[in-house]
Amino acid sequence: MQSIQANSYPIHFNEKGYEAINLHLKENKYSNLFIIVDSNTNEFCLPHFLPVLETDLIIEIIEFDCGEENKNIETCVQIWKVLTELGADRKSLIINLGGGVVTDLGGFVASTFKRGVDFIHVPTTLLAMVDASVGGKNGVDLGNLKNQIGVINVPKMVLIDTQYLETVPQNEMRSGLAEMLKHGLIYDKEYWEQFLDLKTIDFADFDVLIYRSVEIKNEIVLQDPTEKNIRKALNFGHTLGHAIESYFLENDNKTTLLHGEAIAVGMILESYLSLHKKLINIEEYSQIKSSIKAIYTDIVFEENDIKPILELLIHDKKNEYGNIQFALIEGIGKIKINQMVENELILKAFQDYKS
């Protein structure tokens, strides 16, 4: 597959990526090499990755516990301390091998350690391949609030090897699929339509769908690297989705949702908002709702869940001057950003979701 040129860094696929990493290691005089993994990727992905590296550098592995609950500043502090103890300097290279938590956190660690060291992303989950590792966003959660602390800083390259997906459970695959569905809804109607009947998808050729998803996100980010305008389109489904994800994360009596599970709900809810702002028609909304519900298990919302979810919306990063702003779809394949929505309509969206 042909590499994709992002904003000052390349995205390589499969074998070409390993060739690129080894060439990068050869051409740059790094002092040492650190690979950040979580407990899952240390066990399942590192044994595949290490043998393909061609370098005489001493390689140090830094592992932290897997899970969104560990994507916080405390984990960063621990990793910064380990880097310091192991002699990391400005000429060190960090490779982040893992899912979205690893690439988000590892990119933030690298971007801030000694005011920034080089890093490379090697995403190992579908979600990280099509979303988290592409675009230069790095960061951590603040308590239960998603991605409140972070920077936009690009890696030296991204390596997408779809062999790692063989280690990913089905629920994690569905989580990543939500971002692919989003890319179709906001940018490419034909791409969205390929997912209307999952039985017809040839998963042996899934690489092509992943490639297109990365291409869509990259095309949007290239137009607006720092999210001042059209990049906000990528937040479709995320304004409510992140609030739902945060609420379920902080409540012990709720089962923690995967990112894509929350975003799937968010896309249905925000499609309802699009419908009632006359941006899509009822046929389009029905297609979106039924297609997403066919893939994802319904999330149960009690009456007393909705108010605290709405209260979390004020922390969404797109908000300006205290106003909650949505990126809504204007027909399938198009987007309209900076849309204000009153709480009464959001409540109706939740009622419709439950119906």
Compact description:
By secondary structure, the protein is of the alpha/beta class. It contains 14 helices and 11 strands. It starts with a strand and ends with a helix.
Content-based structural category: alpha/beta
Ranges where pLDDT stays below 50 over 5 or more residues in a row are: none
CATH homolog superfamily of the largest domain: Dehydroquinate synthase-like - alpha domain
Strand content: 15-25%
Number of domains: 2
Q: What strand order characterises the main sheet?
A: 4-3-5-6
> Per CATH, what is the topology of the largest domain?
Dehydroquinate synthase-like, alpha domain
What is the architecture of the largest domain at the second tier of CATH? Up-down Bundle
- Provide a count of the helices: 14
Helix content: 40-55%
Average predicted local confidence, pLDDT: 95
- Main sheet characteristics: 4 strands, parallel
Task: Kindly report how far apart the N and C termini lie.
Answer: 43 Å
